[in-house]
Amino acid sequence: MYDRLIEELNAAADIAVFVHINPDGDSVGSSLALYNFLKKKNKTVHLYSPNADGSIPAKFSYLKNYNAYNAERLTDKQYDCAVALDCGDASRLSEDNFKIFKKAKTKIVIDHHESHENFASITVCEPQASSTTQILYKILKEFDKSAIDKDIALALYTGLVTDSGSFSYSSTSPETHIVASELLAYGIDAGFVSRKVMKDTPYALFNLKNRALSKTKFYENNNIAVINFKNDDFLATETTEADTEGIINNILDIDTVEIAISIAEINDKAFKVSFRTKGKVSAVELAKIFGGGGHAMAAGCRIYGYYDDIYNKLITTATEMLKHA
User: Fold this and answer.
1) Cα–Cα distance for residue pair 83/268, rounded to 1 Å
2) Domains of the chain (ranges plus CATH)?
3) Tens digit of each residue's pLDDT (9 = 90 or more) over 40-95
4) Cα 295 off chain centre by
5) Are 269 and 310 a contacting pair, CB within 8 Å?
6) How far apart are CA 322 and CA 30, in angstroms?
């Protein structure tokens, strides 16, 4: 099923693996799983993160080679093969990283976004999969099952837990549970992973969450909920925009809420917007209106302009979609 992709990886001697901007558990898990697997296959492998300092969320520090990102300075080198993981479109790689990606002799993308826009010579995109790690496990199993060890399985399981919402999202399928079962057979502590990626909250993040949730605004009989994060919030809590990941789920959990929106200030007149829905409204269709993408119930985009204008347009658009749902 994955013959061509495996052939190219097997033939390549020098491989670059890329994660998307502000990497989450699926991006980190899939990239470290592939990195560790290819190293066992005696490949020269380099990990690249769009984050300038190469930093990856500390909650994933239990994964093998967590500190390997950006260990080699990004250059104009031409790799035999470049692999982008969990990237729905090229912009998720950052401009600098994409330049290196597209220069490689063979370009591979493994993804599961419904709104995927092809930008590689070989693409494996399975929108029905709960995570990129779910797909990658099948690829590595077909490539060389004997090379999968506990560290690789742990990275894959981390991505699986993260992107399935600990197996609570609608994307969780029988295959998701089968893959999870096979990965757990490597001796993974499932409780530890769930605690680290879904529950453990740093004190600073706890303060950011409380600050944001206390200012939640509701519209359309509490069917729409909005939280926002301004630079003042990050300064007051010693956090960054990357720390907003997942907080939106707290307002989606409110029983009346059908559409949850998170607006995070990135720079002057630049905002990251996340959408979460329960199925009545398509999150990805909502995101597409603003040039974004994602999944049916989880999507996002970046919007540039004045905050008040952006806010009002988001509420107006969400309200219209809800009324016509």
Assistant:
1) 32
2) 3-199 (3.90.1640.10), 203-323 (3.10.310.30)
3) 999 999 999 987 666 788 899 999 999 999 887 767 789 999 999 999 899 889 88
4) 11
5) no
6) 35
